[in-house]
Amino acid sequence: xxxxxxxxxxxxxxxxxxxxxxxxxxxxxxxxxxxxxxxxxxxxxxxxxxxxxxxxxxxxxxxxxxxxxxxxxxxxxxxxxxxxxxxxxxxxxxxxxxxxxxxxxxxxxxxxxxxxxxxxxxxxxxxxxxxxxxxxxxxxxxxxxxxxxxxxxxxxxxxxxxxxxxxxxxxxxxxxxxxxxxxxxxxxxxxxxxxxxxxxxxxxxxxxxxxxxxxxxxxxxxxxxxxxxxxxxxxxxxxxxxxxxxxxxxxxxxxxxxxxxxxxxxxxxxxxxxxxxxxxxxxxxxxxxxxxxxxxxxxxxxx
Length: 303
Ligand code: 13P
Ligand code: SF4
Prior knowledge:
12 strands, alpha/beta, binds 1,3-dihydroxyacetonephosphate, single chain, binds iron/sulfur cluster, Rossmann fold, 3 domains, four-stranded parallel sheet, about 45% helix
């Protein structure tokens, strides 16, 4: 079936089943066409918490679909392709985290949203790339175990007086973006501003004009007077930025997240038709994980 037909079929199925498609910014432009909401992890978890649809089809990676289910247990949450898994989210295990907690009994645990449900259940509070610094500063204790992204943890450490105990996880896409490639791009496009995702290494972030979550990049590109930007994140973000700001220029210096691209129009259509693959969580774990997510969302509301 051609893309146009698939898009029409998906739109029809969404209406029939009272379903919504929540789409992460890194998805491909054909997936944007069937989106009810496109955003970063924070936006999408908020959208999942407030939707009155019966079915949520999550076009993103596993932890995002799980977060939607944690927040909206009464909804059917579908993940169109089980292969769409964020490798970083699996770089921390509950056993290893419990060991770390024993080592630092006075520390609170802040987990990046890029974690599995059982890690959220072991954590005190959740963060996303959009709010990590605010979250760390909101925690009462002085010591914070931050899992799993060492780069985001280091960035938060550079912005706070709290003591952050780092984990050794990383995103293979962002960690590969080198200071050299940022400098080369700066030399090539001297009028461009460098916008960088906080999953990048600190040396890249220190050179950036702005450190942004994926959705914050859209806000920044809108308000900036610059006409050109070097984008240090997954390269699909450039398509998203170009779609919103066709008169501005965007240059990618990041590679592809192959897991994010496992979602296709074909598997979204099949997911809606067959109502597969449903996210199912242990209720006890889900409730515990929801505490960490709710705490994060509360802080956002208060701001
Ligand atoms: P955002 O929440 O900024 O969209 O980031 C999610 C992610 O996986 C980045 O690699
Ligand atoms: Fe995970 Fe990195 Fe892909 Fe984001 S870009 S989903 S952090 S692997």
